[in-house]
Design brief:
alpha/beta; 43% helix; 5-stranded mixed sheet; 12% strand
Length: 547
């Protein structure tokens, strides 16, 4: 179990105990444990028991449950409460924006025991008279419930990838003389995965026999299940393998538009080139990209992980990051990045220890000193400035003028209609100090829909004001959505694949941002942080000239 898994277990324990009326001291202690473990920089599974006991805020009770969880994979106290609670109620407890008190109310007063029942009750207007509810609360809950139900049994690509890699290791260890490859959604690196697809030349009987011995897997009728996700197996003859791989890994409309004949091919690439087609990378083979097929010329021009030269949008212990500035730039330097942009949270982000002006200038001085003492990587100053409700940034111009990069992002008052959200972003984009528009819709995949915006207006405004748009690389955001990349390139806009790193490990999220960028066919020439340090500094000069 990694720290995120452990933290979520304590979060659920705190919520389910609150649901059953346990005293606030106990429930709060587990909520605090969730926050502590989630932010702890070292893997608890690799720490000694003594080291875990010394973590600030981990008392004797929490320590004992951490050890129990690491050694047995479960906590008996949680098991006791789970036995007392309908599974559907446990599911509701894990839905964002719907706390234990409200779950308890609908459970006890309406007899509701699942998300589906609750959605039906909402549509029948049964919640309006309940204490703590009302018409606005009910409508917000309806939207959240529909998204929650739609997202059930799906995984973020980052999670599914780890599971898929584990499966492939197992298969390769037994069938290394057979052809086996990921296909379908996971091969296209879709951001949300509901099953793992593989294509293989292993015979069905041999696969079935071996799979029954895999500890992490189970067989349900004709379906395979592996580590909490379904597995779909496509059996292929060796001579047809590459054709079947392309067909099964390409969305239906996209594949049909190519008119590729079945047959024997030497490789996946040859399936395209033998038919006088460019090689379309797997990520790009989505139905939404059919209209952009004629724009696609050379897969070598699509941005790759190796093209990324700079690490933009990073947080440190000055705000809500886990590592110091020095630790962050050291990690970036070890990954051979040429430059690093520090953008801690601004003063309005009180929940993230945002920087008041005095602390911002203190940090700016430290950035300048560290830049001089780290010759292998160039360090730039910056801020992730909150976009206020009226579209203003939350520092005066004379403060913003001291910074190299200003990322403008919305973090609060997210419940907006399209007109309000669009106008709020437009005002920030038109601010001459805005360098980059951060995570434009504020979405959290599988947790929260983004606020609605008029993407064309936003992109057009960025083009008119020389503002770069962020592709936030966190696998939980991936915002700007890849479906708007081609339109952005048509408007000659730069996009930046930013990790939004809150720890040294978070820098690695750039990989997932690159996956999203490749789905949209982002050219390396349109990617800001594919610029080398000299090109990046030229872009900064352009930004400063518009101020």
């Amino acid at each position: 179990m990694d720290n995120r898994d452990i933290a979520k277990t304590f979060q659920l324990l705190g919520k389910i105990m609150e649901l059953h009326g346990e005293n606030q001291f106990k429930t709060r202690s587990y909520a605090n444990a969730y926050m502590t473990i989630r932010k702890w920089p070292d893997a608890l599974s690799e720490m000694s028991h003594d080291a875990i006991a010394e973590i600030p805020g981990v008392g004797k009770a929490i320590y004992g449950k951490i050890i129990e969880l690491l050694e047995t994979g479960e906590i008996q106290t949680l098991n006791k409460y789970l036995e007392m609670t309908p599974p559907g109620i446990v599911d509701l407890l894990q839905m964002k924006g719907f706390g234990p008190k409200k779950v308890k109310t609908v459970w006890e007063e309406l007899g509701i025991e699942s998300a589906g029942e609750l959605l039906y009750a909402v549509k029948e207007n049964r919640l309006i008279e309940l204490k703590g509810f009302g018409a606005k609360t009910q409508e917000a809950l309806r939207i959240q419930l529909e998204y929650h139900i739609e997202s059930a049994d799906k995984l973020h690509y980052a999670v599914a990838q780890k599971i898929a890699d584990r499966l492939m290791t197992l298969l390769d260890s037994r069938f290394n003389d057979e052809l086996t490859q990921f296909t379908g959604a996971i091969y296209r690196k879709e951001q949300v995965i509901n099953q793992i697809d593989i294509i293989t030349t292993i015979s069905k009987n041999a696969f079935h026999e071996y799979y029954s011995t895999i500890e992490e897997g189970s067989i349900i009728g004709e379906k395979y299940h592996f580590m909490n996700i379904f597995l779909n197996v496509i059996y292929s003859k060796r001579e047809n393998f590459h054709y079947e791989l392309v067909k099964s890994s390409t969305a239906e409309d996209f594949f049909n538009s190519l008119k590729i004949p079945s047959g024997q091919y030497d490789s996946e690439i040859s399936v395209f080139t033998d038919n006088q087609l460019p090689y379309y990378i797997p990520e790009f083979r989505e139905d939404e990209n059919v209209r952009y097929i004629s724009n696609y010329r050379n897969s070598d021009n699509v941005v790759s992980f190796e093209d990324i030269k700079g690490c933009i949008h990073n947080h440190s212990t000055y705000s809500d990051g886990l590592n110091t500035i020095e630790e962050m730039i050291q990690a970036a330097s070890e990954k051979s990045y040429e430059y690093f942009v520090l953008t801690d949270h601004s003063k309005s982000a009180f929940y993230a220890n945002g920087l008041q002006i005095e602390r911002l200038f203190q940090q700016l001085e430290e950035v300048r000193q560290l830049d001089q003492s780290n010759p292998d990587i160039k360090l730039f100053s910056g801020i992730e400035s909150d976009i206020l409700a009226n579209g203003d940034l939350d520092y005066p111009d004379d403060v913003l003028a001291e910074l190299d990069v200003v990322i403008a992002s919305v973090h609060s008052n997210l419940k907006m209609d399209e007109e309000k959200a669009t106008n709020r972003l437009l005002a920030a984009i038109e601010n001459p100090f805005t360098s980059i528009l951060g995570h434009p819709t504020g979405r959290l995949l599988l947790s929260r829909k983004g606020y609605p915006v008029d993407h064309k207006k936003i992109i057009d405004a960025c083009a008119a004001n020389n503002v770069c748009i962020e592709i936030n690389a966190s696998p939980y955001r991936l915002d700007l959505d890849w479906r708007w990349i081609q339109y952005a390139m048509e408007k000659d806009i730069l996009l930046s694949i930013n990790p939004d790193a809150h720890s040294v490990e978070g820098i690695n999220d750039i990989f997932f941002g690159v996956c999203a960028a490749r789905k949209g066919g982002l050219s390396k020439y349109s990617c800001l942080n594919a610029f080398d340090v000299e090109e990046f500094e030229e872009w900064l000069i352009e930004q400063h000239q518009k101020r």
